Amino acid sequence: MTVEQDTGLGRSAARGGMVVLGGQGVRILVQVASVAVLSRLLGPRDYGLVAMVLAVVAVAEIFRDLGLSTAAIQAKVLTRAQQSNLWWLNTALGVGLALVVIAAAPLVAALYDEPALTALTAAMSGIFVLNGMGAQYRADLTRRMLFARLAVATTLAPLLALGIAAYAAANGAGYWALVIQQLVQGAVALVAVAAFAGWLPGRPRRGVEMGGFLRFGWSLAGTQLINYAASNIDSVLIGTRLGADQLGSYNRAWQLLMNPLVQLRGPTTTVALPVLSRIRDNPALTQRFVQRGQ
């Protein structure tokens, strides 16, 4: 890589970091506003019931993506056939996991001794389908370093979802307002990233090299599974021992504290991954970029 290319990539990374960080800032404000607004319309039990479901079924989100988004972003070469196959694989995993979650809904209700969780869990399963369909579009925007488009999509979705959820909560929807918020956010994000990516998947094809993506993704999924256990065991324990009301209060406090911190970490990964994947064959340059990024 030449000095000019090095400088150009550095500037692109810096601009991308600012764009993504700005988008994340807006998302933080929306998330804080979501807790503040909806907490006045809903009770701790409403939050607690939804948190119970998310703490259990969120593990399926790891297997829905299976690390394939990251595998696509960091790949040296990604053909349109491979991209289409990855889209179909993510979508199939999303649909399959949604069916598993629907079948397991009575077990989730039994775990917490909350009959209302059966219907709530089944409804939340739609998130896996929406996220599965959008995974490779988000990966494509990140791979091509189209951070402005990605930022618009990821800020527009929660903003619209908050408005619709607040309307539903104000009209007596109860905890279903939080379910509506999750589903609307997933649907809007899917439409936005698909439109910004500007392509539709072709039919799945055999004979396309996919082994490298699957091996990379499976290794990453193992790490994500460990992180999931560390991040959600507290909600499971509080929900099973103390009930929905206490978990709801805990969950709202956790969202106000942790969501901004999680969002601030996001831009680093979003920008660094496509940049470092392009220069990984140059260890000295990679080290320089990592040091500058830190």
Could you explain the architecture of this structure?
This protein has helices at residues 3-41, 44-65, 68-74, 80-112, 117-124, 126-143, 147-170, 176-197, 211-242, 244-278, 283-293. The protein is built from eleven helices and no strands. It has one domain. The model has no long low-confidence stretch (mean pLDDT 81). It is globular, with a radius of gyration of 20 Å. Helix content is 85%, strand content 0%. The chain starts with a helix and ends with a helix. With 294 residues, the protein is an all-alpha fold.
Tell me the number of helical segments per DSSP (H or I, 4 or more residues long).
11
> In terms of structural class, how would the helical and strand content be classed?
mainly alpha
Segments where pLDDT lies below 50 for 5+ residues?
none
Question: Sheet bearing the most strands, described?
Answer: none
Number of domains: 1
- Please estimate the helix content: over 70%
Global morphology:
globular
Radius of gyration: 20 Å
Average pLDDT figure: 81
Approximate strand percentage: under 5%
**Helix and strand pattern:** HHHHHHHHHHH
- DSSP E strands, number: 0
Termini gap: 22 Å
Outline the secondary-structure elements.
Elements: H1 3-41, H2 44-65, H3 68-74, H4 80-112, H5 117-124, H6 126-143, H7 147-170, H8 176-197, H9 211-242, H10 244-278, H11 283-293
Short description:
This protein is mostly helical.
Name the features.
294 residues; mainly alpha; globular
